Amino acid sequence: MSELESFPFGTRTFVMGVLNVTPDSFSGDGVGSDVNAALNRASRFIEEGVDIIDVGGESTRPSGIYDGVQEIQEEEEIRRVIPVINAIKSRTSVVISVDTYKASVALAAVNAGATIVNDIWGMQRDPDMTSVVSSTGCSVVLTHNTRNPEYSDVVQDTIFTLSEMVDKAVQSGVKEESILIDPGIGFGKTVKQNLEILRRLDEYKTIGRPLLVGTSRKSTIGNVLDLPVDDRLEGTAATVALAISKGVDIVRVHDVKEMVRVSRMSDAIVRGWN
């Protein structure tokens, strides 16, 4: 059984906390290669109520993946993430995902204890990623992403593409029950298009897979509020609350304590409280 099959989706919203083991995180919260710092951050997340910890060893900020920033080598990415995953796994039972689009990194992470692969290219970038996911039985997040954003209707077009990605994955041996979808806020979309997606998030439920959304500290919030990356907490909270009202299953966030509270309050309103 994949990790996703154990989550009671529909009962509440689950919170994925971002743990960047990078020196150049766009959000400014990367812990670099300091395993102790990463473990302390993970422990704090757990105390604050996180459900999943998403470990990333390469910055995937949209401005970096499109403008020719040099990608790090697979060996370096593995060197960054595996000690952290090992440390978290040896001390906690929290669910771990790995934020990577490289098959070799995903395989190493799953072997170390990660059970979800969060691929911002939706298994379209590395031809070996599908076989890693299907052979290990791990869960996978398929994110909509494109270098050439041309849409007639950004929501319907991304729904169509995500549906195709799900079908392709299943045809390649990935269990449908192990797939999450992410509309890719900030990836190949303008500010107006990102806001349109947020307004119409409920339409993505027609794909039939659990929905993950990551808006935390992103430039859309910065552009709307004219605020730097370290001052976007309230903007993030607004997008998280809206996403939950639209039926999102998982929110990916940097500020775990605050967004767990936002999620619980939003769930009480949307799903009922007892």
Automatic annotation (TrEMBL):
One example of the protein's molecular function in GO is:
dihydropteroate synthase activity
Biological process per Gene Ontology, one example term: tetrahydrofolate biosynthetic process
Write the protein's name. Answer: dihydropteroate synthase
EC top class named in words? transferase
Its required cofactor(s), as named, are:
Mg(2+)
**Which pathway does the record list?**
Cofactor biosynthesis; tetrahydrofolate biosynthesis; 7,8-dihydrofolate from 2-amino-4-hydroxy-6-hydroxymethyl-7,8-dihydropteridine diphosphate and 4-aminobenzoate: step 1/2
Quickly give the catalysed reaction: (7,8-dihydropterin-6-yl)methyl diphosphate + 4-aminobenzoate = 7,8-dihydropteroate + diphosphate
Assigned GO CC terms: cytosol
Q: Which keywords does UniProt give here?
A: Folate biosynthesis, Magnesium, Metal-binding, Transferase
Give EC number(s), comma-separated.
2.5.1.15
Q: Which SUPFAM superfamilies match?
A: Dihydropteroate synthetase-like
Q: Name its species.
A: marine metagenome
Tell me which InterPro entries the record gives. Answer: DHP_synth-like (IPR045031), DHP_synth_dom (IPR006390), Dihydropteroate_synth-like_sf (IPR011005), Pterin-binding_dom (IPR000489)
Q: Where is the Pterin-binding domain?
A: 13-264
